[in-house]
Design goal:
With about 400 residues, the chain is an alpha/beta fold. Helix content is about 40%, strand content about 15%. It has 14 helices and 14 strands. The strands form four sheets. Strands 2-8-7-6-5-3-4 form a seven-stranded mixed beta sheet, sandwiched between helices. It has a three-stranded antiparallel beta sheet with strand order 9-14-13. Strands 1-12 form a two-stranded parallel sheet. The longest helix is centred in the last third of the chain and has 18 residues.
Length: about 400
């Protein structure tokens, strides 16, 4: 037996963010005072009311299987949320609840893509998008979005990327890793292009509530003619601090929703009954003070990065990441080691400054690193001291 695993698995890479987080937690267990800026996980607790709803589900014996698409109660609550908050009209039958938004995206790729299909993917992108596309047998068509454009896809780029084999485009706003948020005008311009082409639009809106001084807009709300081929992905991990509860959802055209339910019924079956009970309550338990605190940390991080020579950073308008460009530091040396790429920079920063970050290569941006400010304000300040101290020790070419 020459190959013990499938070619499908051999062609994908492990999640860079989870790999870095694993190494980081191992160092912490060794007693090292590492500041973990690598993982996309809010440092706030699940809303108390949602937590108690989960506990009540257990004590009431509400622990059986649910429908594969999720409980009707949760799907109805999500449909109300989409109407009230996003201006999107969906029936509960068009909502598919899964074990996290990542799972929802995976289901989408398997449900709509055939081998050889193309999916347009603006870069920088979240690390799992290209791997999910490849698992489905499709081809990610990477479109580089420049720093000058705020790391956003331009209409002419979208037009140029569409081919006869294009099945879908992914739009992630607010964006992971850049924090970019598309304005209504920018979305409308992309919508004008998409209206001319019969392809799916996947809008990943998991960070929609975490925006600073701007407004999140859902594309199909301003381009309703796109509704019949738009899939809106969201979940509970970020806004409601429920990462471990594993609960996400997609709102989709009826035929695609039906296909995803069929697929999920043979994969995971229903999502966690307990998590779904908590999700119903969580939708009414968002804490806006969390956004204020994230913005305070963001502003401190940006101000500090601006004082470190060789680093520049576009101002993120959403999510909880900064995505600084460290390209001017590449070619520098530290303790006799030449830093040739962002991965080496991150490894040395973790080893010698005890700050854990993620190299931009994993996001399709090899000059950048991703910093999560989902850590305390005090840790943000200490991280800046350590990063600044490390950079100032570099010997520039």
């Amino acid at each position: 037996m020459e190959q013990r695993v499938s070619s499908r698995v051999r062609q994908i890479a492990p999640s860079a963010t989870l790999s870095v987080d694993t190494r980081t937690k191992a160092l912490i267990q060794e007693g090292k005072p590492v500041i973990n800026m690598s993982v996309g996980e809010p440092d706030f607790d699940t809303p108390t009311a949602a937590g108690f709803a989960g506990i009540k589900a257990i004590t009431d014996g509400n622990t059986r299987y649910t429908a594969a698409a999720g409980t009707m109660e949760l799907r109805q609550a999500i449909a109300r949320k989409l109407m009230v908050e996003n201006g999107l009209q969906y029936k509960p039958e068009q909502i598919v609840v899964s074990s996290g938004a990542k799972h929802s995206l995976f289901n989408i790729m398997l449900a709509i893509c055939d081998p050889g299909d193309e999916v347009i993917l603006p870069a920088p992108y979240w690390v799992s998008y290209p791997e999910q596309i490849r698992v489905a047998g499709a081809v990610p068509v990477i479109v580089d979005c420049s720093e000058e454009a705020g790391y956003k896809l331009r209409p002419e780029q979208l037009e140029a990327a569409i081919s006869q084999r294009t099945k879908a485009v992914i739009l992630n706003s607010p964006n992971n890793p850049t924090g970019a948020v598309y304005s209504e005008a920018e979305l409308r311009a992309l919508g004008d292009v998409l209206l001319r082409h019969d392809i799916y639009v996947i809008t990943d809106e998991i960070y929609e509530r975490l925006v600073y001084g701007v407004r999140h807009v859902s594309l199909p709300a301003i381009c309703p003619d796109l509704m019949p081929r738009t899939l809106v992905v969201n979940g509970f991990s970020k806004a409601f601090c429920m990462t471990g509860w594993r609960l996400g959802y997609v709102a989709a055209p009826p035929d695609v929703a039906k296909a995803m339910v069929s697929l999920q019924s043979h994969a995971t079956g229903s999502p966690s009954t307990i998590s779904q009970a908590a999700g119903v309550v969580a939708l009414d338990s968002f804490d806006p003070h969390m956004v204020e605190e994230f913005q305070r940390r963001r502003d401190r991080l940006l101000a500090g990065l601006a004082q470190i020579p060789g680093i520049r950073c576009v101002k993120p308008e959403g999510a909880f990441y900064a995505f600084p460009d460290i390209g001017d530091l590449l070619g520098s040396s530290f303790a006799g080691t030449t830093i040739e790429n962002a991965g080496q920079f991150c490894e040395l920063l973790l080893e010698h400054a005890l700050v854990s970050t993620v190299p931009g290569d994993a996001f399709g941006a090899p000059r950048n690193i991703r910093l999560s400010y989902a850590i305390s304000f005090e840790q943000v300040e200490l991280a800046l001291e350590r990063i600044g101290g490390f950079v100032r020790q570099l010997r520039r070419p």
